[in-house]
Amino acid sequence: MNYHDYYAKADRPVETCVVGTGGFGQSFLAQAQRAPLMNARIAVDLTAESAASGLRAAGIDPREIQVCESARDAKTAWERGDYIATQDLACVSDLPFDVVVEATGQPQAAARHSLIAVEAEKHLALVTKELDSVVGPGLTAMAAERGRIVTTVDGDQPSLLIGLATWAEVMGFHLVAAGKSSEYDFVFNPASRRLTSNDRSAENVDLEGHWTLGERDVGEILAARNNAIMGFPQRAVPDLCELMVVANATGLQPDRLDLHAPLARIHEVPTIFSHRADGGILADDRRLDVFHCLRKPDEISFAGGVFVVIRCDDPKSWDMLAQKGHIVSRTGANAMVFLPRHLLGLEAATSILDAAIHRTSGYGSDYQPRYDLIAVATEDLPAGRVLTMGGHHHTISGVTAEFRNGGPLTASAPAPFYLAADCRLRAPISKGQEIRMSDLELQEASDLMKLRREQDARFFSRRL
Predict the structure, then answer these.
(1) Which strands sit side by side in the sheet containing 399-405, from one edge to the other?
(2) What is the per-residue pLDDT for 462?
(3) CA 26 → CA 56, 210, 346, 350, 354, distances in Å?
(4) At CA 112, angle to CA 43 and CA 407, rounded to 5?
């Protein structure tokens, strides 16, 4: 795409409202001040003051920021051309902006904000994958009935991977696998035998003998590496959540329900994510997975980027491309094409402009609840335990996530991970057991449950 085409089709800058001014929302607010076709004059956060703080951090003159507690205050500030900080999206929903950027990361709050956005006939850029994993397809269909777009957002891996994987198939490449690297590399110093990852470290880690793949059996070396890093987490709920969004948008599927998630060096990816017959770990084509980038301190990072593994159907072409530095598997059967980046809110403008100007969604036109991300106990959980979600990665202590085929939320159905979040257990759950809907004290009146029930009725009416 020639991005200058946006100028031809836009008669004014796209006006946005950012909900959630930490992390992604903060970087978007900062970048929106530089993007020539984008305005971000409204910030919403837990408190109006924290929203104002987000605007100040984005470089806005404090004299231009108005803290607004009512719709009347917000309307006055808008008409003056000021920036607006508020704690309630409902206070500003009647203003003439185009797109709500929902970036709170909190599924219950995001459900309320998304409903307000759709009912106010705004487009919605849905950064909160936690909500997306529970109700994304239904929310997208609901907005479409009102002539509005819900889109995933460039800068985050789901959008980037959907784009790369669909590009590969439109080009006619035979897609073997698609995925991403995890957010944090595993950095190994051979001289000190020290391994670090995400502020964790370990000494005397035995990786030297398992550093080079060579001609070794892939399963053997991955098992040895897994053994060497047993003290480090090797599955992350956010990775599963993001890939589930990709699966629902593309029809790609996991090779195993909790992903393989191998520890791999960058040049090994097309070898590892090959069919078993080609020496890899996959059972079939169009598989989704994640890898943990293993590197030395002076080696380049994958930077949480995304990749596809494609079959080298034209050996002469791929021999030439390998000579130019493209990464081909050790058998020559497959190659990796990748984007070693995800720039969070700094890259979000393209998706938002596509929604507002071109009326297109990053999910594409076939976004369905093919899968659910369900909650599984990793320890014995007593009745009465509140499944509190917290931390930077929005995890639940004692609970992990796995893929399951999508379906309606009957009493016996496994509970979606981010629907179970912050609910109380009615019954004890054994380690390794799925948490089912009947095991939870549900918040039936919540906007999240309302959206999920509507999604189930829309896509699974025959099974209810």
Answers:
(1) 371-377, 399-405, 395-396, 389-390
(2) 79
(3) 10, 40, 9, 17, 21
(4) 135
Contact (CB, 8 A) for 2 and 85: no
pTM for the model = 0.96
Using CA atoms, how far apart are residues 254 and 286, in angstroms rounded to an integer? 8
**Where do we find the tokens 């994987």?**
165
Q: If residue 245 lies in a helix (H) or strand (E), which one and from where to where?
A: helix 237-250
Closest CA to 66 of 41, 93, 90: 41
Cα angle value 294/295/297 (rounded, 5°): 140
Segments in 33-191 forming alpha helices (H):
48-57, 71-80, 107-119, 129-145, 157-170
209: DSSP letter: G
d(CA 84, CA 19): 12
Per-10-residue mean pLDDT of the chain, 464 residues long, equals 78 95 96 94 97 97 97 98 98 98 97 98 98 98 98 97 98 98 95 94 94 95 96 92 98 97 98 97 98 97 97 94 96 97 94 96 97 98 97 93 97 98 97 98 95 97 76
3-class SS string, 18-29? EECCCCHHHHHH
pLDDT at 154: 96
- Per-residue burial over 106-126, b if 16 or more Cβ lie within 10 Å, else e, is bbbbbbbbbbbbbebebbbbb
Residue 128 DSSP label: -
Burial group, residue 369, by CB count within 10 angstroms (0-12, 13-18, 19+): buried
Of all helices (H) and strands (E), which one includes residue 83? Answer: strand 83-86
- Do residues 124 and 99 make contact, with C-beta atoms less than 8 angstroms apart? yes
Q: Which two tokens stand for residue 197?
A: 């990852």
CA angle 131, 411, 456 (to 5 degrees): 45
Q: Tell me how long the chain is.
A: 464
Note whether 162 and 363 are within 8 A (CB): yes
Helix axes 107-119, 129-145, angle to 10 degrees: 20
- The pLDDT, as a whole number, for residue 3 is 77
Residues 6 or more apart in contact with residue 430 via CB below 8 angstroms = 377, 380
Question: Any residues with CB less than 8 A from the CB of 429 and at least 6 apart, and which?
Answer: 377, 380, 381, 435, 439
3-state helix, strand, coil split of the chain in percent (to 5) is 35, 25, 40
What is the C-alpha separation between 253 and 138, in angstroms, rounded?
20
Give the list of residues 6+ apart from residue 185 with CB closer than 8 angstroms, or none. 197, 292, 293, 294, 295, 301, 302
What does the radius of gyration of the chain's CA atoms come to, in whole angstroms?
Answer: 23
